[in-house]
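[scheduler] slot 2 assigned
[scheduler] job type: sequence-to-structure, two independent chains
[scheduler] chain ordering preserved from manifest
[runner] begin chain α
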Amino acid sequence: QVQLVESGGGLVQAGASLRLSCAASGRTFSSYAMGWFRQAPGKEREFVVGISPSGSMTKYADSVKGRFTISRDNAKNTAYLQMNSLKPEDTAIYYCAANKINWGPDKQLYPYWGQGTQVTVSS
């Protein structure tokens, strides 16, 4: 089992950058694929990006390609989401999630979730 804690959210203006962190407990972080999802008010939780356990493979939602970058440091049990050129439509609660199956967009495959961190982008 793994516990996840997100941090790094905040209020920024359009065009700014933020880096989110997801700290994981346990000694088997490197065996988990990680994903970032987001949920805006009144909308379903949606996939943002996923990364393989080794970090060698990633998958991005079209809406964030070229602006967001996922990475992980297995020595530090932490995954990161670098968000550049933020837009008001990126406003949401951002969640990290973990699973041992894949790093794709199916949120049903992720049994472990953090509590979320709010990202608000003003125009």
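[runner] end chain α
[runner] begin chain β
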Amino acid sequence: QVHLVESGGGLVQPGGSLRLSCAASGLTYRNVNMGWFRQAPGKEREFVAAIRWSGGHTYYRESVKGRFAISKDNAKNTVTLQMNSLKPEDTAVYYCAADQGGILSSIRDPTKYDAWGQGTQVTVSS
């Protein structure tokens, strides 16, 4: 069974930066999709970024391109989301997720992920 533990959420001013980390255990395959999703109050959960564990190819929603960067550390089994130039509209609960045996065509689809972290609050406000 896959277990995900998140850290790094908090309060930051517009234009500031935060780094979210996700520690994964129980992964048994290298062809794993690791994703970050977010959900604001009253809104649908939406895709933010994802990375293929094997190969390290990355994917982003259009609104965060150039501001966010997803990366991984194979030795530590961790995935990081570096968030720069944060905007108030980035405010949400952020979730780490894993799709073991995931395929490329489903990497942006939250319904295809079968393991989720607890969520961490990110608030961007002056």
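[runner] end chain β
[qc] chain β: The chain has a mean pLDDT of 95.
[scheduler] slot 2 released
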